[in-house]
Amino acid sequence: MNIDTIVDQDYAGWSLRALAAAPCSALRGLSAGDARALAQAFNVHTVRELANLQFVQWAAAIVTLADQETPETQIGARESLLDDGLEMTFPASDPISVDAGVTRIEVAPEMVVAQGDHQHAGQVAHSTEAGLRKAARKAKH
Fold first, then answer.
1. pTM
2. Per-residue model confidence as pLDDT tens digits over 69-101
3. How far is CA 49 from CA 5, 29, 37, 120, 140, in A?
4. Residues above pLDDT 70, as percent of the chain
5. How far is CA 105 from CA 95, 135, 139, in A?
6. Dist CA 10 CA 26 (whole Å)
7. Which residue has the higher pLDDT, 76 or 26?
8. In terms of pLDDT, which residue wins out, 134 or 73?
9. CB–CB of 43/32 below 8 Å?
10. Radius of gyration over alpha carbons of the chain, in Å?
11. Following CA atoms 34, 35, 37, 41 in sequence, which dihedral angle do they give, to the nearest 10 degrees?
């Protein structure tokens, strides 16, 4: 940014420290009358005092944060989508899922060595049949 574009011609080429100590009228667009009004209203005489004015800092902070703020409608929509997604994933309020019986595994499948068959594809059916046969024998006795 070329600082000379935002200060009056009389202050062009000044260092930033010198500009900070300059009167408020050094800023392009602030007349001597405007500078007197700032001095009378806020006891502000220099560019630094104007920048450090509490009201100016508050206004700058509000604008900076407002530019980063998500509009309320977007926040509400995101929360609604999140709630709907959770309800679809965990339908706790669904009477059918709440009242439905829980399927339990009565007979645990035999353990298989994961090194040879890490997905248990070949062993699951065999283990289930063996467990069911064993449970049937117990039931007969």
1. 0.49
2. 777 766 666 677 766 666 666 555 555 555 555
3. 21, 17, 14, 75, 96
4. 62
5. 23, 12, 16
6. 8
7. 26
8. 134
9. no
10. 38
11. 140
Q: What is the 3-state secondary structure (H, E, C) of 61-75?
A: HHHHHHHHCCCHHHH
Residues belonging to the chain:
141
Mean pLDDT along residues 94-112: 58
Q: Rounded to an integer, what distance in angstroms lies between the CA atom of residue 23 and that of residue 48?
A: 9
CA angle (109 as vertex; 104, 115 as ends), nearest 5: 135
Question: Cα–Cα distances in Å, from 133 out to 14, 33, 123, 139?
Answer: 96, 101, 15, 10
Number of other CB atoms surrounding residue 133 within 10 Å: 11
Query: In sequence order, what are the residues at sequence separation of 6 or more whose Cβ sits closer than 8 angstroms to the Cβ of residue 52?
Result: none
**Which amino acid would we find at residue 34?**
D
- Of the listed ranges 1-10, 46-55, 116-125, the one predicted with least confidence: 116-125
